Every structure is written in structure tokens, then in C-alpha cells.
């Protein structure tokens, strides 16, 4: 496994190293970076993208997925998406010269909300969080139904107290464990990924996020901005130091694919009637190719 975790251009103290590497992935200076936009639970689109990647992926490349695997969009198959991701991973790693950390999985907003629900008993205001999800992310209800629950059910349990919520979240995690590989899949999800060029090329590094970023905060200060600061991303007028370009896979405003110098947005509307987009990038962020399925 590669051990390039120092992030030379943003030093990290030794005591914070484990926490940092649990949240972010340093992909070094790859030959080429294949970046898949938010999948939004669309297994058929993902399968076609995988076919194209499989025909061109080579040792030295990296593959970055930008999240929303569990999405409950219309026609979504979250279980099928995870199955396809795991099967493709096995197929790719069977090739000579490829390593497990050549594949990077970012956490999408759907996975972030699922994680909050799986730990809801630890929240200070669980009923408030559930109500907020009902108002702002009602699609989570159909996702929960796929695992034998609902937001209404969570709200009722929340009124019963912490013990009932603990049993409810435990049952939810048990359902996830029934899906082979799904629980472990959640352990490899990262908040963001970045390149690290050799010394002297620091200004050519690029950052991969799910939906947004707050340009006024450092990488380690972003917290939940990767999922909610999509408007900040759209309004960026200067590069987010120390990165040349920031690439995202999800645009809640559904403005389409946009290829700029300091930002690249790859959301082609997959799950909303559009296509799943994949881009090939140079290690310094130049867009080499874009294809959709």
C-alpha cells in the first residue's frame, strides 16, 4: 500500500495522521485519473461505464468514485450498485500491476445521511434530525424502506427514547450486514481525495469532492461542507489553494457538466433522467476525455 500521507503542501502532525487518513485519500501522482460522477443508485448506467473503464484502465491509473451509491432516486438499485462496484473491483484487481488503493470511493450525501441514521441514538436532537431529513431529503424514506424501515418509523421510535433508538439503529445495521460486502464498503468511504505531485509542482495538485467545498476553510476544516457547500463551489472565482482544480461529481442544482480551469463539475443528471459521466484526467487536472452512459 502506498504511504504518501504527509500532504507536504498542508503539513499534518503525527498525532492527527490516523484521523486524517481515515477521512482523506492521497492518490499521489498517477498516470491518469478516471473519475465517475455521482451514481445515484443507477446500476445499469454504472455497468456501462465500467465496461468502458475496463477496456482502458492501466497500471499507474487511479479510479475515483464520487458517491451516492445508496441513492433512492427513481429507478435506483442501491444493492445492485454495491454488488456491481464490488464485482468490478475484483475484476480490476485480478490484473497484474494493480493495487487495492488504485480505487477510491468518496462518501456521497446519501451515504452521509445513512451514517447519521445508523448513529442516530448518539445525536443530541434525534427527532429534529429525522424531521429535517423528512423535509429536505424525503428520498431517504424509500431507501430505508429497502432495508425494512422508514423515516416515519424512525420518528416514532425517537419519541420512545434512546434505548428504542439504539435498537432501531442496530436493526438497520444488521440489515446492511445481510448484504454481503456492504458493511465493509462503508469503511473505505472517504470525504475527499487529492493528488500530490513531486516537489516543485505543488500548484498542479487537484482535489476530488462529492458536491462542494468552502473556499474560506482549509481541507481539514471542511467537515460537512463536502456535501452541503455546493453553492460555494459554483461561485468559486479563484483556485482553492493549494490545489489547481477542484473536481466534483454531484451538483444538486443540476446545472450539467461544466469543465473549467479551477472547477470541474461532472454531474450529467444520472438518476434525474440524464447520463452517468466519467472523465479521464491528467495528474495535473487537464480533462483528457469525457464519456457518458
Please summarize what this structure is.
With 293 residues, the chain is of the alpha/beta class.
Describe the structure.
The protein is α/β, with parallel strands linked by helices. The strands form two sheets. It has a six-stranded mixed beta sheet with strand order 1-6-7-8-10-9. A six-stranded mixed beta sheet has the order 5-4-3-2-11-12. A hairpin with a 3-residue loop joins strand 9 (258-259) and strand 10. Helix 2 runs parallel beside helix 3, helix 5 (126-136) packs antiparallel against helix 7 (151-160) and helix 7 runs antiparallel to helix 8 (162-178). The protein has two domains: 14-107 and 191-292, Metallo-dependent phosphatases (Purple Acid Phosphatase, chain A, domain 2, 4-Layer Sandwich); 112-178, no CATH class. The chain is built from eleven helices and twelve strands. It starts with 16 loop residues before the first helix and ends with a strand.
Amino acid at each position: 500500500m502506498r504511504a504518501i500521507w504527509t500532504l507536504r503542501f498542508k503539513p499534518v502532525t503525527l498525532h492527527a495522521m490516523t484521523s486524517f487518513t481515515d477521512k482523506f485519500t492521497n492518490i499521489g501522482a498517477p498516470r491518469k485519473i478516471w473519475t465517475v460522477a455521482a451514481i445515484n443508485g443507477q446500476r445499469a448506467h454504472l455497468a456501462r461505464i465500467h465496461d468502458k473503464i475496463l477496456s482502458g484502465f492501466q497500471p499507474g491509473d487511479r479510479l475515483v468514485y464520487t458517491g451516492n451509491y445508496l441513492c433512492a432516486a427513481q429507478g435506483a438499485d442501491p444493492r445492485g450498485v454495491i454488488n456491481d462496484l464490488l464485482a468490478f473491483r475484483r475484476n480490476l484487481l485480478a490484473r497484474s500491476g494493480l493495487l487495492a488503493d488504485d480505487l477510491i470511493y468518496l462518501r456521497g450525501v446519501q451515504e452521509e445521511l445513512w451514517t447519521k441514521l445508523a448513529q442516530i441514538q448518539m445525536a443530541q436532537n434525534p427527532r429534529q434530525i429525522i424531521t429535517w431529513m423528512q423535509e429536505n431529503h424525503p428520498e431517504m424514506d424509500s431507501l430505508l424502506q429497502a432495508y425494512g424501515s422508514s423515516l416515519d418509523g424512525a420518528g416514532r421510535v425517537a419519541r420512545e427514547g434512546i434505548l428504542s433508538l439504539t435498537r432501531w439503529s442496530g436493526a438497520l445495521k444488521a440489515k446492511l450486514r445481510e448484504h454481503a460486502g456492504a458493511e465493509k464498503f462503508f469503511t473505505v468511504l472517504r470525504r475527499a481525495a487529492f493528488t500530490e505531485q513531486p516537489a516543485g509542482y505543488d500548484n498542479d495538485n487537484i482535489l476530488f469532492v462529492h458536491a462542494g467545498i468552502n473556499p474560506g476553510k482549509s481541507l481539514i476544516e471542511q467537515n460537512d461542507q463536502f456535501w452541503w457547500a455546493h453553492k460555494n463551489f459554483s461561485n468559486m472565482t479563484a483556485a482553492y489553494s493549494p490545489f489547481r482544480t477542484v473536481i466534483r461529481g454531484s451538483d444538486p442544482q443540476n446545472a450539467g457538466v461544466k469543465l473549467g480551469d479551477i472547477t470541474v463539475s461532472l454531474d450529467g443528471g444520472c438518476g434525474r433522467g440524464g447520463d452517468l459521466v466519467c472523465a479521464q484526467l491528467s495528474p495535473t487536472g487537464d480533462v483528457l476525455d469525457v464519456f457518458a452512459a
